[in-house]
Amino acid sequence: MNPMSKLPNHNKGFTLIELLIALALVTLVTSLTFSYYSFQSKTFEVTNTQTQLQTATRFAREIIETKVKYAQSIEILSEIPQQEDLSDDQEAIFVDANGIIVYLTKTASKNLLGNSFNDVDMCLCFYKATDAEVTDNLLGFNVKSVIDNDEYTLESQVYLINHPGINDAPIPDPDNSNAISFVP
């Protein structure tokens, strides 16, 4: 009988090299997973911001087009109108100092977009649009939305169906908000 066969077998554990290799693999998988998660999180944030900007801008454009399309009279203003200066049938749309698009009547003032886009700064620029076929009844406007350093701008033109013509106001500075007043 071999005396070595009675000795206990101590080969049931991991060697130091095996543990180091396993630790290196776990570290590599963990760092790759964290990098992937970080990339996906940043991508989601950018996509979400762009979606908010585009949605707010398109929503504002649609509401403004709907409000002014059938206006009886319209005036492009270089200053924000005051509620007491409006006649009973007159309405106004402008951007206030907080970057919120305001819909103003003689009796009420409200956020045109509701409370859904309070973190989006808006800017409006109205102007008399020129077209070879339609000269006096075309209102042009830019809607710009901004969140942090991201921005989105839409340009639109509305044919004013019931209106004889827009006042000949000069095209304002597109970086400054301005207003319109109109009689629906």
What labels describe this entry?
single chain, 8 strands, rod-shaped
Assembly form of the protein: single chain
What structural class do the secondary elements suggest?
alpha+beta
Low-confidence stretches: none
Shape: rod-shaped
Could you explain the architecture of this structure?
The chain is of the alpha+beta class. The protein contains one helix and eight strands. It has a five-stranded antiparallel β-sheet with strand order 1-8-2-3-4, with helices on one face. Strand 6 and strand 7 form a beta hairpin.
Question: Which helices and strands appear, and what pairs or packs with what?
Answer:
Elements (H helix, E strand, L loop, with lengths): L15 H53 L4 E5 L13 E5 L5 E5 L3 E3 L9 E8 L9 E10 L2 E10 L19 E5 L1
Antiparallel strand pairs: 1-8, 2-3, 2-8, 3-4, 5-6, 6-7
Summary of the model, kept short:
This protein is of the alpha+beta class and 184 residues long. It is built from one helix and eight strands.
